[in-house]
């Protein structure tokens, strides 16, 4: 059941994160002339590029870049908060930082900016988590994400001008990895489901086709018959010996 608190979180946190992205990007566009992107973009394999692991998803090259990332970021982060109300802060942090670290270590020697890597990581986490967790709700959101965002896989192909395809590919890998890492950490509804299943198993003992001791009784009967036959044989031998 969707609580009022969770509903507030579903609306508040995705909008707040997107607002921060917009504020930083617009400031960089109009007031700083791209200086933030230059200094705080993700410069691969350079010490100066380490701040970009955190800052680069907040920076964009222009309005088309910002707008193309805004809607999928808002919807996917909303799905994350809705379906994983306990886990989402750790998952979001893991995806944000993990994607940045992978791009810093493995990306081309260019400056990477934009939230698209985090968007791909969110989509991959939501898609793969349902597979790894085998929870009905998680599987439903997996199917929804695959249906609406399956076409994003084209973005991982190299050779696209002006697109950090490495951020897309490594974000996808990071999302799948996070889905596997968090597979054993259950949400409240999963814990409640397991508790009810355990109670149901205790309340209804397993029924057997035959009595549980059917074969034990047969064995005992055979042993008793063998005993009496042996006793009768001894009596017969004793009688003949006289």
TrEMBL record:
Xref: Gene3D superfamilies: Rhomboid-like
InterPro entries recorded: Peptidase_S54_rhomboid_dom, Rhomboid-like_sf, Rhomboid_protease_S54
Sorted UniProt keywords: Hydrolase, Membrane, Protease, Transmembrane, Transmembrane helix
Molecular function via GO: serine-type endopeptidase activity
GO cellular component: membrane
SUPFAM superfamilies per UniProt: Rhomboid-like
GO BP term (any one): proteolysis
PANTHER family found in the cross-reference section: RHOMBOID PROTEASE (PTHR43731), SLR1461 PROTEIN (PTHR43731:SF9)
Protein name per Swiss-Prot or TrEMBL: Rhomboid family intramembrane serine protease
Origin species: Neolewinella lacunae
């Amino acid at each position: 059941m969707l609580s009022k608190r969770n509903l507030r979180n579903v609306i508040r946190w995705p909008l707040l994160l997107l607002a921060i992205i917009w504020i930083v990007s617009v400031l960089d566009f109009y007031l700083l002339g791209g200086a933030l992107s230059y200094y705080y973009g993700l410069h691969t394999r350079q010490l100066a590029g380490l701040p970009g692991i955190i800052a680069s998803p907040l920076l964009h090259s222009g309005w088309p870049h910002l707008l193309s990332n805004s809607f999928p970021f808002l919807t996917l982060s909303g799905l994350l908060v809705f379906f994983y109300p306990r886990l989402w802060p750790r998952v979001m942090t893991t995806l944000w930082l993990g994607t940045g670290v992978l791009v810093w270590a493995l990306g081309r020697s260019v400056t990477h900016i934009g939230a698209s890597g985090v968007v791909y990581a969110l989509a991959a986490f939501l898609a793969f988590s349902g597979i790894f967790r085998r929870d009905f709700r998680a599987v439903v959101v997996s199917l929804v994400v695959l249906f609406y965002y399956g076409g994003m896989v084209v973005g991982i192909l190299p050779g696209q001008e002006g697109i950090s395809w490495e951020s897309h590919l490594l974000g996808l890998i990071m999302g799948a990895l996070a889905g596997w890492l968090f597979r054993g950490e259950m949400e409240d509804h999963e814990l409640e489901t397991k508790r009810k299943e355990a109670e149901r198993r205790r309340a209804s003992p397993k029924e057997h086709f035959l009595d549980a001791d059917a074969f034990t009784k047969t064995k005992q009967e055979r042993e008793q018959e063998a005993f009496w036959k042996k006793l009768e044989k001894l009596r017969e031998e004793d009688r003949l010996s006289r």
